[in-house]
Amino acid sequence: MAELRFDGRVAIVTGAGGGLGRSHALTLAARGAKVVVNDLGGSAHGDGQSASAADKVVEEIRALGGEAVANYDSVENGQAIVQSALDAFGTVDIVINNAGILRDVSFQKMTQADWDIVQRVHLNGSMSVSHAAWPIMREKGYGRIVMTTSAAGIYGNFGQANYCAAKLGILGLAHCLAEEGRGKNIFVNTIAPIAASRLTETIMPPALLENLKPEAVSPLVAWLCHEECEETKGLFEVGAGFIAKLRWERTAGHAFPLGRAFNMDDVARKWGAVTDFSESTHPTNTNEALAPILSAVSNPSLGGNEFIDLDTATKTE
Ligand code: NAI
Question: Which stretches are annotated as coiled coil (predicted)?
Fold first, then answer.
């Protein structure tokens, strides 16, 4: 098989001045992509800014014979970052939303400012850069977007309420963009990485960090950005060479008959069926998820209303 390449493709990698973003940028550039290396250059807590982080990675890419330009805007200003891509390379094909900060603190002690800055950088930032690139991708009928969530968001983690909420918000954004982009050949996937970086160096022992190289995350990201990859709406856990896909799982559940009142005692009695995963399903979109409910509601023999049109009931556009 010939090497997969990105010749002629333009990629924006946010937060690419260090850690995972730097590795993604180097990986794409090594395979021929022209890269906008975005980084605000602030601290891990989101304070300050500097051009040096992005500049250093641009130099690294150029030294290896690749093409890259630096951008120092915050991801909250997606328009400026996309403009850098347009000014330098004329278009944008790939957006890797990776920039991030931490303001870890227990919920009890969390301030509104701790909450707001994490939402702004992670959730608003991922939206802002994607939103600025979206019309360009739609127009050309091509786009690849990778979002960065976290195990903390998926599973919950002590002391990270702001981060968990923002990270799962990003997954919700990705799910919607995947649906809206599907018909325009814009594919949107999400990774939950684990890697040694300044965000993890204070919370993991050095021996563990040694084997958690950012370079073990970038091959998946690069594949998800490639034109031959038809995956969309996926969520992947990735780190130290491990790559796996996640999906939703729903129990078979219990349906109380329509038109007959039921109360919390009935719910308590049926709790076993409600929570039993032995005959689970894996809905992948709202139609699949709502189908069992709406088919009962629209079936007169089950006490439903025949006038409900399933198609209209589940379309939200
Ligand atoms: P890092 O701190 O090395 O890299 C993040 C980069 O984003 C930094 O260079 C920083 O300057 C930049 N940045 C921060 N705010 C910015 C803003 N407003 N605009 C532009 N750039 C900004 O950290 P790491 O670990 O490489 O993190 C990358 C992403 O991966 C983050 O979204 C993080 O939440 C996520 N992640 C990382 C994990 C890990 O194990 N390292 C685990 C789960 C998620």
Answer: none
